[in-house]
Amino acid sequence: MTGPLTIIQAGNIPRRYGLADGFADMFVKRAALEPGSYAVLDACRSPGYPKDPRERCGYIVTGSLSMVTSRPMWSLKLTDFLVKCADREVPLLGVCYGHQIVARALGGRVDWNPLGLEMGTHEVTLLPEADNHHLLRGLPASFPANLSHSQSVLDPPKGARVLARSGHDPCQIMSFGDRVLTVQFHPEFDRWTMNAFARLHYSLRDGSPVPRPRRKAPGIPSGLSLGLPVRKTPVPVLILRRFADYSLRRLQSAFVPAGFGA
């Protein structure tokens, strides 16, 4: 286990959002990752996953504009790799789409949230068991987080612990043991990014609704829970940095000679 913290980018952000950074760039900045400490794999373009996930010190699976229920071929390969990560207890953080596809890979059910879209800055409430997880210990009981999702984890996998909820989604954080943590919210989003996503669904200038694309598929909820104004979200950033630090300590330990410091 000598490889860098690896960001698995599950797609990217179209130009219409007006953002210069892609998903992986946002994680690098918000986690304050140093050059050489991380690598990026593009899940959509034959990424060449390590044969043994333990070759890397940890993984982050990003958000995506794809839906977990669509199941493109690249997502099936990613699913297989995530099962290996969980089986071999490699540190893994899933974010939004990453949260959902980890849940599906491990036997959970993901589908359209019956309440519709959750967008903007919303309060996330930790459940009592959260304080037992080393990445969540000592955090405020509730905190603001940035969200942009229409699908949710409706039935968590067997053995998963649900550690947080929002008013719109009862499964905001899940853990699978100590090394796999997934979050529905976006710790990598700053206020500029969250506003860019929200503008596609609502006008922030005058409060008037923006026409939304008509969904052709039947049975997709059209509700919208909009959290405005967008606010600072320091606690999700702290969770991300705790995960990065935890993974990178494992990387550093791989280079310490046997017996050093004994």
Q: CATH homologous superfamily?
A: Class I glutamine amidotransferase (GATase) domain
Order of helices and strands: EHEEHEHEEEEEEEHEH
Described by strand count, sense and barrel closure, the largest sheet is: 10 strands, mixed
Mean pLDDT: 89
Assembly form of the protein: single chain
- Just name the CATH architecture: 3-Layer(aba) Sandwich
As residue ranges, the low-confidence spans are: 204-214, 255-262
Q: How would you sum up the global shape?
A: globular
Question: Which percent range describes the beta-strand content?
Answer: 15-25%
Number of strands: 12
Gap between N and C termini = 21 Å
Descriptive account of the structure:
The protein is of the alpha/beta class. The protein has a single domain (5-253), classed as Class I glutamine amidotransferase (GATase) domain (Rossmann fold), CATH 3.40.50.880. It contains five helices and twelve strands. The protein has helices at residues 23-30, 73-87, 97-105, 191-199, 234-253; strands at residues 5-9, 38-42, 59-61, 92-95, 109-112, 117-126, 142-149, 151-155, 161-165, 173-176, 180-183, 224-227. Strands 1, 2, 3, 4, 6, 7, 9, 10, 11 and 12 form a ten-stranded mixed β-sheet that branches. Strands 5-8 form a two-stranded antiparallel sheet. β9 (161-165) and β10 form a beta hairpin. α2 crosses α3 (97-105). The longest helix has 20 residues, at 234-253. It is globular, with a radius of gyration of 18 Å. The relative contact order is 0.18. Mean pLDDT is 89; it is low at 204-214 and 255-262.
